[in-house]
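During the first year of the project, the team set up a workflow for recording each protein of interest as an amino acid sequence followed immediately by a discrete structure-token representation. This format lets reviewers and collaborators read both layers of information side by side without switching files. As required by the reporting guidelines, we include two representative entries from the current panel. The first entry is reproduced here exactly as it appears in our internal archive.
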Amino acid sequence: MANADSGEDTVAQRIRKVRHSLAPGELKVAVAISSGYPTAGLVSVAQLAAKAGVSTPTALRLVQKIGYAGYPAFQEALRDEVQSRLFSPVAVYPNDDGGHAAVAGSDIAVAANDYIEGVRSTIGDVSVPDLERAVEALADLDRTVMVLGGRFTSVLAIQLHQYLRILRPGVIFVNPTSAEYMTSLVDIDQTTTVMTYDYRRYQHTTIEWGDAAVDRGAQLILMTDTYLSPLSSKADAVLATSHAGPGPFDSLAHGFMLTELLVSAVAKKVGGPARDRLAAFEAMHLAEEDGFPVLSNP
């Protein structure tokens, strides 16, 4: 629920951790699960194996390799994830019998614990190879970067855009409107990196835009929660964060944290050119504060 993570890795997280050590047949099963996650694994083992084009024993080996005693335990974990994806803030809304309950010290302590555990799980579970790929793509000055968020996650996208455009040119924020979706897609090609934010409940328009961007040749970086947006199967890099917080809504605090880590890493990767842009920005900012019209015509 919104107030805490389960403390256990999701099936998708387990697959990501062993992905680079899987045999070719096992990797096919992992891809089949990810392509329709999490419901793709709620079929019989024979059906999953057939979808992946492998034998039933190969599918069972993958299940055991990601830490499940058998196929029933694997499916039970997936069913739990389906229920978590259907999470509603209304279901965990605090009942204070009238709406006048004061904030208690215990509330602050519980929230602090949730946030601390969320930080630990986010940093502990981040995929270093995925993070490196994301930084490499965002720091490539020969590529245009487009940033998109959803109904609530646009605040994360705005933060990334605001900082990245100071450090490097060619960074575009895509407003979450149908007109912006269409006009931005016109400009996407093989030289474009798109960074999308998509947290549960996953937004259809964000997913459709991400799919279309990949179809047009873009490199896709995804930041999502531990249950993973459907876009994860198309992404070149997936950065998953905790959603732990006091509720009733899923917390975006850990998304802000990982976004700031991305910005810091990109600044180091770009190096001198980013420092020069930042210096120029600071000079204009100081001039404006001193009352000099930096934007007026000479």
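The second entry, processed by the same pipeline in the following quarter, appears below.
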Amino acid sequence: MSQPPLWPAHLHHFCLRTAQLEPQTEWYSKQLEMDAEKLAEGSVWLKSSQRNLILSSIDGSNDDRIERERLRFAAYALDTLEQVPYFDAWLKQRGVERSEKKSPIFANDQISIEDPDGNTFIFGVPNKKETKTPDRLPGRLQHIGICTPDIDRLKDFYIDVIGFRLSDVVSNDKGTISACFLRSDHEHHDLALFKASSSRFDHQCYETTCWNDIRDWGDHFSKTKTRVEWGAARHGAGNNLFIFVRDLDGNPVEMSAELETRRYDDKPGIWKTEERTLNLWGSAWSRD
């Protein structure tokens, strides 16, 4: 089976808006052991060996706007610069709407698109060469999750138009989808979609090297007096171990281990909408 020009790609960084830029910068610097660098437009680049996140300011007077616009963009690294023109032509043929947003830490030759919910996704090549050397506390930025009121439309867009593959789908007995997990390389998913009442950012995830790393992150959060909100537990879809904490804006931050891998043409798994799908060991979070 021929692969679309998106392949392979992986989540490199994303940009979150916050009404408390300095406190959030301090939180990520301390909790995720990331160095902060101020960028020209006033945003902050938080970085470590395998973690990249950009924080930008937003007016805090409108809670609905903050929730709706929390995710400024998500940026996926293509494997080579040679992919860029082919992927660009692929998207033009499919009439994909473009966005004016650009990533300051990608090379100028980047592609910025807008999905049917208004989320911006950027595809390009990082200015700084990536490393496979783990941080002191390993945790490579691996995926994000977003919520949508029309999950069928968004799923079809990312699979049929952009070129992601479906790894697992979660639905009830009537076939109504509540979640799906998409991949753009060999890992089980680097984009998770959840059905909810509104379009919004859901969570961020960092993949560690083993179960012992989850223990070490738990000990680290204990020392910094950051509460583990969910876990330790194991997802059904993806079969990964995890814990969750929240940043100062309430954004869920997941530390994961042992995420499944898939071949390009593997058929998707089918899961039932029930608690066990999200947590084989116990209770699960729900989304409104």
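For the second entry, the following points were noted during internal review. The first strand starts at residue 9 and ends at 18. The mean pLDDT is 95. Both points are flagged for discussion at the upcoming steering committee meeting.
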